[in-house]
């Protein structure tokens, strides 16, 4: 699988770390309720099809970015408007 | 049909009798009826868990007006794709008790179902490559013994006798210091488990319906009333989900967002060879395990690909890693050719433990989140899920595996890593 890094272009998947569902807040504010913290930590959309997700180019530019990928075909898609 | 009927049961006598007619007259193993308009319980998913649940619902709870709906063929999901390791070598008490109950059911399963599930207790050995690995295995072994589960620590001499092909030389890439064996662990025939439960459930009147995909879950006032399917609406006051990697999709049909991500896990087999490995061998450090099938193939597996996937096929990278790990442990296998590889949809939870529970939707029950390890759980998963559905409350064995443990913080994190997504 080639992953399109917005900074480095398409690179082999082995260079990347996966960050999962981009709709789950990456940080939990201290004022969050227990329900909000639970949702952010544990609950996922987990769709079959387009999925907005986080990737980290660990062995490259070391930047986090968001990408849209089809979880059935593994094809990377253009970001939805 | 009675599965123990002397005329139709699987027995030596009937094997001989059917041999005389060229094996053309064996009875069909289950009916394939069209769905009825309504059932007391509908189970979604005809893998091991759905079929085992149907069996125990009918056998132990008298619920025979039940159906199992499978979108393709029985056991075509993870049940037919897994590497069939069966063990109960867990550290934490809820896991130990649950998986040991499962192992005990496995031990009597072929007789109970009149169906040879080929359960072979050849032992499962986990290797230690460092002193801290070994200390960890000792702790695990002691915890297992305190829970009444068999565990034996093996030193290097014992390993050399038990696993002659294992590289125990001082120059090994990963030195082996010892291992922990669960002698009662082993492997089973994956398809047979699905077919055996299906045949026995069908014999008690459960309808097993293949090529019937559930496309919606109908609710009224927060209660389940039935399922929409490709064969039309089927009414049921109780619906149990046993769909493994599709749990998120079925959950979403009922408006639930679950603590589950679907990932692909691959496995592979080599060409068949003469007996060379008579235990299941696992290495935590390499995240690799191997066994030899009764047909002689070496069965190997390793890591999930590591990103959400519904593809049922994976990338070559984890396969390469598995092969490299295999050769680090067993250099002699280097000349074997790979026969095939495949993938299945893993329902990965956020603490690495399964969910067998009621859901916030009344009448909707969830059996899922099996991660890598749901095949060995098939008997106990079905047994506990049937109890939960029939009584509308969990059994003590599955009460810890609730859905709300993620909200309350009562996680069952066998790895002791906390609430970490992508724990695996
Ligand atoms: C490569 C690999 C190796 C593994 N190795 C092991 C191992 O060594 N030991 C171990 O214990 N476990 C192992 N596992 C895990 C184990 O296979 C699973 O946890 C277990 O088989 C799950 O059983 P199940 O009945 O829940 O799911 P499945 O067998 O996947 O059954 C679910 C069924 O639901 C059906 N379904 C899905 N959506 C719908 C719908 N909308 N309508 C109707 N039907 C639907 C599917 O078609 C499928 O047949 C492995 C898994 C894989 C992929
Ligand atoms: Zn980059």
From TrEMBL, chain A:
Example of a GO MF term: sarcosine oxidase activity
InterPro entries, per the entry: SoxD (IPR006279), SoxD_sf (IPR038561)
Residue ranges of coiled coil: none
Superkingdom per UniProt: Bacteria
GO annotation terms (biological process): tetrahydrofolate metabolic process
Protein name: Sarcosine oxidase subunit delta
Organism listed in the record: Rhodovarius crocodyli
């Amino acid at each position: 699988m080639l992953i399109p890094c917005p900074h480095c272009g398409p690179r082999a998947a082995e260079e990347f770390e996966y960050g999962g569902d981009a709709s789950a807040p990456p940080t939990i504010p201290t004022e969050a309720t227990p329900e909000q913290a639970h949702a952010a930590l544990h609950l996922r959309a987990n769709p079959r099809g387009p999925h907005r997700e986080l990737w980290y180019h660990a062995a490259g530019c070391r930047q986090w970015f968001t990408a849209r990928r089809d979880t059935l075909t593994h094809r990377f898609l253009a970001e939805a408007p | 049909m009675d599965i123990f009927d002397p005329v139709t049961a699987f027995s030596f006598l009937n094997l001989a009798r059917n041999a005389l007619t060229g094996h053309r007259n064996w009875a069909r193993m289950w009916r394939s009826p069209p769905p009825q308009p309504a059932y007391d319980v509908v189970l979604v998913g005809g893998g091991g868990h759905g079929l085992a649940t149907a069996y125990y619902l009918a056998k132990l709870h008298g619920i025979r007006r039940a159906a199992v709906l499978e979108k393709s063929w029985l056991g075509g999901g993870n049940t037919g794709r897994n590497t069939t390791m069966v063990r109960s070598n867990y550290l934490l008490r809820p896991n130990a008790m649950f998986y040991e109950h499962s192992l005990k059911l496995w031990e009597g399963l072929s007789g109970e179902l009149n169906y040879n599930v080929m359960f072979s207790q050849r032992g499962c050995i986990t290797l230690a490559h460092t002193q801290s690995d070994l200390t960890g295995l000792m702790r695990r072994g002691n915890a297992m013994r305190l829970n009444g589960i068999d565990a034996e620590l093996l030193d290097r001499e014992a390993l050399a006798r038990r696993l002659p092909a294992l590289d125990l030389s001082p120059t090994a890439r990963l030195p082996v210091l010892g291992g922990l064996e669960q002698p009662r662990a082993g492997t089973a025939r994956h398809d047979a488990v699905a077919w055996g439960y299906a045949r026995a459930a069908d014999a008690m009147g459960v309808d097993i319906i293949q090529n019937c995909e559930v496309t919606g879950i109908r609710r009224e006032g927060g209660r389940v009333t039935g399922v929409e399917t490709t064969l039309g609406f089927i009414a049921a006051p109780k619906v149990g989900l046993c769909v493994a990697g599709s749990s998120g999709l079925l959950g979403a049909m009922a408006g639930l967002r679950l603590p589950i991500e679907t990932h692909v896990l691959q496995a592979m087999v080599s060409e068949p060879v003469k007996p060379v490995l008579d235990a299941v061998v696992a290495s935590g450090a390499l995240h690799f395990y191997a066994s030899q099938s009764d047909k002689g193939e070496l069965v190997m597996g390793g890591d999930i690909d590591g990103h959400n996937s519904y593809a049922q096929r994976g990338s070559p990278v984890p396969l390469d890693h598995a092969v490299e790990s295999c050769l680090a442990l067993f250099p002699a296998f280097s000349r074997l050719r790979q026969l095939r590889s495949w993938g299945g949809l893993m329902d990965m939870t956020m603490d690495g433990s399964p969910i067998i529970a009621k859901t916030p939707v009344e009448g909707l029950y969830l059996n899922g989140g099996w991660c890598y390890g749901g095949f060995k759980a098939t008997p106990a998963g079905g047994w506990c899920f049937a109890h939960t559905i029939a009584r509308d409350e969990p059994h003590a064995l599955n009460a810890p595996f609730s859905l709300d443990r993620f909200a309350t913080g009562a996680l069952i994190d066998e790895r002791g890593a906390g609430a970490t997504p992508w724990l695996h």
